[in-house]
Amino acid sequence: MPNTTIQTGQDWGAVNVGRASANRVNVPKSAAGVSRMKAMGLVQTERKYGAGENASAHSGAGVNARKIEESDDLKINKVDKNLSKAIQQARMAKKMTQKELATKINEKPQVVGEYENGKAVPNGQIISRMERILGVKLPRPGKKPKSKESATAGTAGGKTRGGPAKRR
Length: 168
What we know:
- The chain is mainly alpha-helical.
- It is built from 7 helices and 2 strands; from the N terminus they run H-H-H-H-H-H-H-E-E.
- Strand 1 (155-156) and strand 2 (159-160) form a beta hairpin.
- The longest helix has 13 residues, at 81-93.
């Protein structure tokens, strides 16, 4: 048989992958090292215009000032004290903890705590779930009872004017 060499494609020579020990630049790793290198004159820094800022075309002093003024009129509704007391009393009557009530309404215990402390933003779905689990009717936020003056505005002496109501 003839002698043949089979090429395996393997190169078994030493290869340096990664950092080469020659021509290696010493990079400072701390702020003190950078300032030391600056003092020696080995490192130079440049301050770039607008670096690190969100330089949007829409941002301006007038726009930001107007947003601040408009935000004064906004008021976030919080849970009424009557509602928070009613939730707490109903929960205590059922001898439940905040955590137990929260698990039954599929919410976090912090949500129940915020409702009882009056810090939560009212959510009708959460309130209705609490009503169902606690078995009580809770006072709803934002619904004010009609005053007697507005109820009698369309009547004269308690009698309705005109004929029957129109059907649509």
